[in-house]
Amino acid sequence: MKKPYVWDNYSDQPAQLKDRAFKKNGRKKELFSLIYTYLSSLFLLPVFMLLQHLVKPRSINTKHFFGMSVNLEYFPEESVALVNELEVDTLLIRLPLWEMNNLKHYVDFIQQFSDKKIILNIMQDREHVTDLKLLEKDLILIFQALQNNVALFQVGTTINRAKWGFFSVGEYLRFFQVAYRLKRATFHDIKLMGPSVIDFEYHFTLHALFNFFRLKYDALSSLLYVDRRGAPENRQMGFDLLKKIKLLDALSYFSPKTKRELYLTETNWPITKTAPYAPTSEHECISESLYTEYMLRYYLLAFASQRVDAVYWHQLIAPGYGLIDSRDGLKKREAFEAFRVMLRQLKEAAFVNFSVTQERYTLVVKNTKGHLTVVWSLHPTTLQLPQTLSYYDYLGHEHQGKSIEITGSPIYITKNIYDL
Description:
By secondary structure, the chain is of the alpha/beta class. It has eleven helices and 18 strands. The radius of gyration is 21 Å and the shape is globular.
């Protein structure tokens, strides 16, 4: 990564571009694409907001639903052991194009997870965006080295932020087209995913899905953060997480450019008192207990939608937003255990039912042991049952009860409570 782009090792992302003239010039060159982005969304987004109600959910189980992002840069040997401890089956691993000289290290790291489903996030820099011959050369090396180890290649990331190297969706489409042509010509069996728009900025996603470029995505990727709105149930312009997912799924369904597979490849919440590692200001940061609750509820809501193939938590080890704090050794946050408990309770589970009543959320699934009900509430309430049942809190502690207090921390009841 070359100046004016600078990598921020604390937040694990590029720093804000400070050269305003550089940004202005970059956007000026892409004016036609930027105009298309906003005009197309002005006319098409209202249409898809109506059409989304015609799109039915799919049937998705949890075998590869609960994903985790791991990073070669952070304790690679320990990461292997921690992933096995979590028993997570699908991973997202970053590969920055500006580190092609370290490709072998990434290959060796990925091959340690041979029993996992791997998503490879190919992260761009400005050099590879502007020099498509260089991009082609390096993508060939990546595909040759990892085509047998990677289930999906996420080509590019965070395309709607200039600090990541793109000034328009048009630039991204030309970038992705290089990978698509390589697939058509040589690497027929690889799967390519895009466009990886961050946040609820679907006008960029719409442009990437409805255009005149000759390309096609094998799956739709989105960095669907909702952290600036607080809880995942909170609304932004009338859309909570479930409604954001429903609209995104509709764009995928009606687009001629992608198959109907949806991966939420990044999400998290920043943790209070972790500056400068938190990627946002202290105002957006939350406590570790809320971080755990929100994380679990994000996964549960996304699964309840039956429109998302997988969610990837960003990430396993990170002081400001990870399951493990690495500032003084490796310290597991309670979210680590909560994630592991969620996986054990819901692994291999199939969707049965989901309901929301007076801000109480109830998800029923069927796993290898029978039916399981997951319940949480945005306001403390009491669940009265006709008989005493066993249930587990979010950290896996077993309880018995007929009158159960329901809070923002999901609990797991070992019955379908609707059958009682």
